[in-house]
Write a structure and sequence with these properties.
The chain has 14 helices and 56 strands. The protein is α+β, with helices and mostly antiparallel strands. It has an eight-stranded parallel β-sheet. The protein is globular, with a radius of gyration of 30 Å. The N terminus is likely disordered.
């Protein structure tokens, strides 16, 4: 297959480059400039020397099967590779005029390196393939000539614990000498977490150094080259220690292999097979697993996997497959093979899932948040009121809790697009089960979409595809922390005591073994869709752990009926297995027990440190990734330890997206967590473990291999360090007027909702001040999700939807759409829907009286959007809705934001600026040639000093100002209004001038 030729990058100038990372996978730094980086194009190379890492394969022979770009494949199994140096084989390929090659590797006897079903795409020159990672260097090259007599050497040890590289290169320049050729010399493994290289300095006393992964990703050291003296030096987490002790001296060589993976199981789903197994243990830690598949006509395949769950897709129909798994540690020691597990595939689906994420930078996409069941009703046949329909008062309003659906949302995507919103955050889609579960947060079967949301021709896949066809993203709300009180189907579901006597027959349905609950289907005996006969038993279940099963208590129900033990799910009753659920009630919301106890009796708290639970959830959410969703909003993220997120769930997300859609899609798959902190402090009551910004970072030290122990160790370690010793970042801030490449090397992979701004949006100026104050403690605050109110709270932890008035709403919106972060709007806020109404009161009041009321009446009629923020036509009630003043306001804000890249992805600064809500923003991307610089003031006037001279054009009024002395004064535009003066840099970076038409606030 054809591809873009690979071009090796020269060493970038230290002041102009920083590595970019998602979940430890670093992306290439910007291309360099200057004579130092001038290298011949890869296409001028005529050969590629391919090095393949053997330690974790241990094959008896190695073959390279390849095709030069535009050429034919070699005859299977390919050409034999020859020994190169310890743990490496190599083969030099004549490419002629080709700029690269596609390649696979095998043992010559039918076992292939599967690389997740994809060919390796290799460039020219020296190319390494190590455990699925392609890099560019010669791993067998030594450091050069022997030192001259009396010459100096530098032995450098580099810590790889926080960069996650499988290949490390040292690029260096002895004092007074020349830089090595990019990417430098390959470093060799020293001991767990360390690589090393000894280099000849000649007469020099030191050298400048930089480290990279051989593939264009650099440890930038915050823009400064490392200075390494002669002798033994360690470099760890950007700290250089000269004259250090050998970090590997006290550590015996690691020769112990991990334990054999246990309890491997395989289950087929169509032409896919899902594997799960218990994790292996190792004295130094397991880094990955090798899954070997046999069966079918394509031969055996070996795939590297980072978690203990793997979905093998695209298999042959009606075919038996066998699998074994081996564990690999950091040194490359490989365990024995697990017992085999087999599965036979079924029929090939007639129409495979068509979804594919849009894969663009999430900061470009303002978010519209809907409760799917309350937004718009496209199909009345899937409406369901549930057991609380009468009691809640919903029946009297003809307003079933499950009313809106995917069909209704598909029908009104043009309304959302017409507002200018290009991402839709929807509430959880998994099958729910409780008395009042329309919101989706009481998950029961995480592998099934709730039937009350789907219709013929309007499945969840149809919604995803319909949104993508309009250039809109779908962010799925996901829950890892808890299930419904009835457990999780396919993992663990408890049985409760229930006798159908004269007192309780109204409550317990008669058991029907032929009926399976799906939330929608009506059980014929009871006439209910919320049938519960499968949940209750008078006979004590086998293996029951609930104490005093079925014995009467001294308590009675509100009706005066006798209550029995084990009649209701409870964490302290012993009803829930500790292997799957925690067994306590939460006591301290900012304490350690917040990660290990139940929040509510309808929120059964998963034991997320348990491997079976991790496998269950990873497997479930892989299904939705495969459908092409664009990101996950993570509910109750704070109630799962950061170690578990960073070790298990976040890497599994990245691994799956990468496997299915590639690295660029994985980099832009947007994960944003709810880390609820309802205070106005920078840190949540002084607890770093319960603050939003904490979750945006990787760990700073290694903890126990046991996830439960690691969670406690991390909690204690970080609490003792305290708020003053947490990492900081400049990723959101300009350096003067200059944009700098962000350093994401310590990014965890989880972005967050900006809780501090949310809590302070009673006043926009207060939200702005609080937001600025926290931004250095996030890994990158430009990815923060920013909203005024939501389905949970309004500002200041109010239980009502925001009711500050239209002018205040306009001001809040003007700030959100131009300040750093991703603006997010809760459905209906564009017309101040249900302003001041209590957001949620459960079944104690009708939904129609709350902030979760049904919105569809305001959407009746037809609407067609011609572009984001532009409506081509509208009729009926929706036309009236679109005429509201805040609708006009948000439409134009979106038009302006989409036209000015600095407002989407830019860093910001308030340096040299006077004004209450005033700032400058810039975004620069050398790859696309983008350079966007904007001066913003909201409501009040501002004076900007020290800014670049040139012509500035206001995107709101079209006013033009020429700056010659570095100063621009802007008069106050009025409450809710703003000014956005964009520097005209010409060409593709020309200032757009006035964008859109004057409206009620932007004028």
């Amino acid at each position: 297959m054809r591809r873009t030729p690979v071009r090796l990058l020269g060493r970038p100038a230290a002041t102009a480059v920083a590595a970019v990372v998602m979940l430890g996978l670093l992306t290439p730094a910007p291309g360099p400039s200057g004579a130092e980086s001038a290298l011949p194009a890869a296409a001028s190379e005529s050969t590629a020397t391919v090095f393949y890492y053997t330690k974790t394969r241990n094959w008896s022979a190695y073959r390279l099967h390849y095709a030069a770009d535009g050429g034919s494949w070699t005859t299977v199994p390919g050409v034999a590779m020859e020994a190169a140096c310890t743990d490496w084989v190599k083969q030099t390929v004549d490419l002629g005029g080709a700029s690269g090659l596609a390649a696979t590797f095998n043992d010559g006897s039918g076992v292939w390196d599967n690389n997740a079903g994809k060919n390796y795409l290799l460039g020219t020159g020296a190319v390494t393939v190590k455990d699925g990672v392609v890099a560019h260097s010669d791993p067998c090259a030594d450091s050069g000539t022997e030192p001259e007599e009396g010459g100096r050497t530098a032995s450098v040890y580099y810590s790889t614990a926080t960069v996650g590289w499988t290949t490390t290169n040292l690029h260096y320049q002895p004092a007074g000498g020349s830089w090595t050729a990019v990417p430098g010399m390959g470093m060799e493994p020293a001991c767990t977490g360390w690589v090393r290289k000894t280099v000849d300095l000649g007469t020099a006393a030191s050298m400048l150094a930089a480290f990279n992964n051989g593939n264009g990703v650099w440890d930038n050291n915050n823009g400064v080259d490392y200075t390494v003296p002669a002798g033994l030096t360690t470099v760890k987490d950007r700290k250089v220690t000269a004259g250090a002790a050998d970090p590997c001296a006290a550590e015996a060589p690691d020769t112990q292999a991990p334990t054999v993976p246990a309890k491997l199981s395989a289950s087929a789903d169509g032409v896919s097979v899902v594997l799960t197994w218990d994790p292996s243990t190792d004295d130094r830690g397991v880094t990955k697993y090798q899954v070997t598949r046999t069966g079918g006509t394509k031969g055996a395949a070996v795939t590297d996997v980072g978690s203990t769950v793997y979905s093998d897709t695209g298999l042959e129909a009606r075919t038996a497959y066998s699998y074994t798994v081996r564990a690999v540690d950091a040194t490359g020691n490989v365990s024995g093979a697990s017992a085999a597990a087999t599965a036979t595939t079924g029929e090939k689906p007639t129409a495979p899932a068509s979804g594919k994420p849009l894969g663009t930078d999430p900061r470009k996409d303002p978010v519209y948040f809907v409760l799917t069941a309350r937004f718009n009703n496209g199909d009345t046949t899937n409406d369901r009121g549930g057991s609380q329909h009468e009691k809640s008062g919903n029946a009297a309003n003809d307003d079933p809790m499950f009313r809106g659906d995917f069909k209704g949302l598909v029908d009104k995507l043009d309304y959302i697009k017409g507002l200018g919103m290009s991402a839709v955050w929807i509430t959880p889609v998994v099958l729910n089960r409780s008395d009042y579960d329309y919101h989706g947060y009481h998950g029961y079967d995480f592998y099934e979409v709730d039937s009350r949301l789907e219709s013929a021709g309007a499945s969840y896949q149809d919604l995803i595809d319909a949104a993508h066809a309009k250039g809109m993203k779908i962010y799925q709300d996901v829950v890892y922390n808890h299930s419904s009180r009835w457990g999780a189907e396919g993992l663990f579901t408890p049985k409760a005591y229930g006798v159908r006597d004269t007192q309780w027959s109204w409550y317990y349905d008669e058991r029907n073994d032929g009926f399976e609950y799906d939330g929608l289907s009506v059980e014929p005996k009871s006439g209910k869709s919320y049938y519960n006969g499968d949940l209750w038993s008078t006979a004590e279940p086998s293996g029951n752990t609930c104490v005093n099963w079925g014995t009467p208590t001294g308590a009675t129900s509100p009706e005066g009926y006798r209550i029995y033990n084990c009649q209701w799910p409870s964490p302290t009753s012993g009803m829930f297995s500790k292997a799957y659920y925690h067994n306590c009630w939460i006591g301290n919301w900012e304490g350690e027990d917040s990660r290990s106890c139940w929040l509510h009796d309808d929120l059964a708290d998963f034991n997320t440190e348990s491997t079976p639970v991790q496998n269950y959830l990873i497997g479930a959410y892989n299904k939705y990734i495969d459908m092409g969703v664009d990101g996950f909003r993570v509910d109750t993220a704070v109630h799962i330890p950061r170690t578990t997120w960073n070790r298990r769930f976040l890497p599994a997300i990245q691994e799956r997206v990468t496997q299915q859609f590639g690295t660029e899609a994985a980099k832009n798959f947007f994960v944003f967590g709810e880390v609820a902190a309802f205070v106005n402090d920078k840190w949540n009551r002084g607890s770093v473990n319960h603050s939003a910004q904490f979750y945006t970072w990787k760990e700073r030290k290694e903890y126990s291999a046991d996830d439960e122990k690691a969670a406690l160790e991390m909690y204690d370690y970080e609490q003792q360090l305290g708020t003053g010793s947490q990492p900081t970042s400049t990723n959101a801030f300009l350096e003067g007027n200059t944009y700098h490449a962000p350093d994401h090397s310590r990014f965890s992979g989880m972005n967050v909702i900006d809780m501090r701004m949310h809590m302070n949006f009673g006043d926009a100026n207060n939200a702005f001040s609080n937001g600025k104050d926290s931004d250095d403690s996030y890994n990158d605050a430009t990815y923060n999700v920013v909203y005024v109110d939501s389905h949970d709270y309004g500002p200041d932890k109010r239980s009502e939807r925001y009711a500050g008035g239209t002018d205040a709403w306009a001001e809040n919106m003007s700030l959100m759409w131009t300040f750093r972060g991703i603006p997010t709007l809760y459905y209906g806020s564009e017309i101040e829907f249900q302003a001041g109404k209590k957001i949620d009161c459960g079944p104690t009041c009708p939904l129609a009286t709350t902030g979760r009321a049904y919105y569809g009446a305001h959407l009746a009629g037809d609407v067609e959007a011609s572009d984001f923020g532009t409506v081509a036509s509208a009729s009926g009630a929706v036309a009236d809705t679109l005429a509201k003043p805040l609708v006009k306001h948000v439409q134009r804000l979106n038009q302006i934001r989409r036209a000015v890249p600095a407002l989407q992805m830019g860093q910001y600064s308030t340096e040299g600026i006077t004004g209450s809500m005033a700032y400058k923003r810039r975004y620069t991307d050398t790859a696309s040639g983008t350079d966007s610089f904007a001066l913003v003031t909201v409501s009040g006037g501002a004076t900007y000093t020290g800014i670049p001279n040139g012509t500035y054009k206001d995107a709101v009024t079209g006013d033009t100002q020429v700056v010659t002395g570095g100063t621009l004064a802007v008069a106050a535009p009025g409450k809710g209004n703003l000014r956005v003066y964009v520097l005209d840099l010409g060409g593709r970076n020309a200032a757009p001038g006035k964008i859109g038409a004057a409206g009620p606030y932007l004028k």
